[in-house]
Design goal:
about 120 residues; 3-stranded antiparallel beta sheet; alpha+beta; Double Stranded RNA Binding Domain; elongated
Length: about 120
């Protein structure tokens, strides 16, 4: 389901950056962080996957789990997002819709925990 050149790392990074920007934080490229003396968040991707459960109707599932750690204080926040849809068929469009919903839910979770994570 990843587009050309995308990786799970790049998808999580871009969605995390979008959520932090929406929360009022600026996200710098890694090369500029040290010079700006900015907080650094280490991101550990625990799970990022989708699967289907066949039956009379097909159930599509996703699970995204990350741990975000503020390097300067070792403050950690875990994020777990699960999505599920019942469909007659597991089409590419259905998978894309499901992952888009999961990533939207992920961004909303990041927005909700950002103040706790970045408060020093």
């Amino acid at each position: 389901m990843l587009e050309n050149g995308q990786t799970v790392d790049s998808v999580v990074r871009s969605n995390l950056a979008l959520a932090l920007n929406e929360s009022g934080y600026s996200v710098l490229p890694q090369s500029a962080v040290a010079a700006a003396n900015s907080p650094v968040i280490d991101v550990y991707i625990d799970e990022f996957w989708g699967w289907l459960t066949p039956g009379l109707e097909t159930t599509l599932n996703t699970r995204i789990s990350t741990t975000l750690e503020l390097r300067s204080s070792e403050t950690q926040e875990s994020i777990l997002v699960r999505t599920r849809q019942i469909r007659p068929f597991a089409t590419n469009a259905a998978w894309i819709e499901l992952f888009e919903k999961a990533l939207n839910d992920y961004r909303n979770e990041v927005i909700s925990i950002a103040p706790d994570l970045l408060e020093e």
